[in-house]
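Think of the structure tokens as a kind of shorthand, similar to the way a musician reads notation: each symbol stands for something richer, in this case the local conformation of the backbone. In the example below we present two proteins back to back. Begin with the first one, reading the sequence and then the tokens, and try to describe in your own words what changes along the chain.
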Amino acid sequence: MWIVVNLLIILYIYFMNKHTFALSVGLFASFMHLVWSIFVFAGWAGPILSFAQMMHFIDAPFTILPFSLIHAFSLIILAFIIPYAIGYVFATIWNKVHYK
């Protein structure tokens, strides 16, 4: 019985559901951009960006533009679509290479 369980675990590890993986990558990326949009709306983006630059030894003059709901919505949607497509392609390649 344990051989069957181990075989199922191995097959599960090697086979990747394309939609599920792409969805998780897309949702993670869009969530991170939603958080960034909230930081811009709250006025916290400037200090966070300055802190991140300081921690990476960067001194680049960036300015945070005023919050725009249309830009924030577009950012979140594109941050879902592009990583979703990349995740879907990655899972397809993974399944072709690892699942024979």
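Once you have a description of the first chain, move to the second and do the same.
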Amino acid sequence: MIAGTSFGLTSQNPVTSTLASDAFTASVGYHKVAAESGTADNLATINRDYANGDTTDLAFLIITADTGDTITVKNGTGNISCGSDITMSGDKHLILFWTGAKWVPLAST
């Protein structure tokens, strides 16, 4: 671990973030992503919360779909590069790493 940073990962409960135009803003390291309307939606862009001081600490991000929702993480449409689309529902989690230009997956459950 590098002194002074948590890389955005915490043991707290996830913050629920509702998608808007296939995007949400990551403010902490663990988010539950909810569909904008209905129970299915696409996630193409994850914005970083620069307004609240996020510059380098949010290097890793864990996301999961909200209960009952199906979220499709889109490859190459926004700032996520995952090789192919990833569908999240149930208790599936995705761990992402910020390269400085895009989010890339490290692991999924």
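Compare your description with these statements about the second chain. The chain is about 0% helix and 40% strand.
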